[in-house]
Amino acid sequence: MATIFSHPAVALGLFPWFRDVRHHKKILLAGAALTIAPDLDVIGLYAGIPYDHMLGHRGLSHSLLFAAIVAALITSILARRIEISARAVWLYLFASMASHGALDALTNGGLGVAFFSPLSNERYFFPFRPIEVSTLNIRYFFESQGASVLANELVTVWPICLMGLLVGIFWHKARAAQPSKG
Ligand SMILES: [Zn+2]
């Protein structure tokens, strides 16, 4: 996995690009939470579920279908409270949650990601894997590995997410400043 500090950065980088949702901080918070939710599957490891099992780490919870279903459930709650296009909310939440598997597939360790679970439990990595994998052991992370993993994510994940955030904000501002035609 990438760390829980960096997965939410993707939700931040995507946020301004979704025109209908970008004024709603609750949706941003939901998107950020969904970027880290797939790693709740580590509970299964402690319960004895093998890593390579469909319900193991980077299995079903990291799949595109699971992201689509969870995004739909959260959308049904949020879109009712905030009067906004449900499709736009779903799309943002789906992209945020699905980004988790994409980041994991860019890491240099562990097993790949079961993007197509439950249809297939095959695990995938991208051919280019610049992100240093983070340990699942919290103690080892803070005592030993954490600094180098975070330093790696600062130069691999964060610049792209910050660029997404800033370019998205400026792009919308530039569009809003254009005189309307007609
Ligand atoms: Zn993960």
Query: What does the radius of gyration come to?
Result: 18 Å
Bound molecules: zinc ion
Number of strands: 0
Oligomeric composition of the shown chains: single chain
Features:
single chain; 182 residues; mainly alpha; binds zinc ion
Short characterization:
The protein is an all-alpha fold.
Question: Can you give a write-up of this model?
Answer:
By secondary structure, the protein is mostly helical. It has one domain. It has 7 helices and no strands. Helix 1 packs antiparallel against helix 2, helix 1 packs parallel to helix 7 and helix 2 packs parallel to helix 5. It is globular, with a radius of gyration of 18 Å. The N and C termini lie far apart (51 Å). The mean pLDDT is 91. Bound molecules: zinc ion. The site of zinc ion has 7 residues, from helix 5. Zinc ion binds next to helix 5.
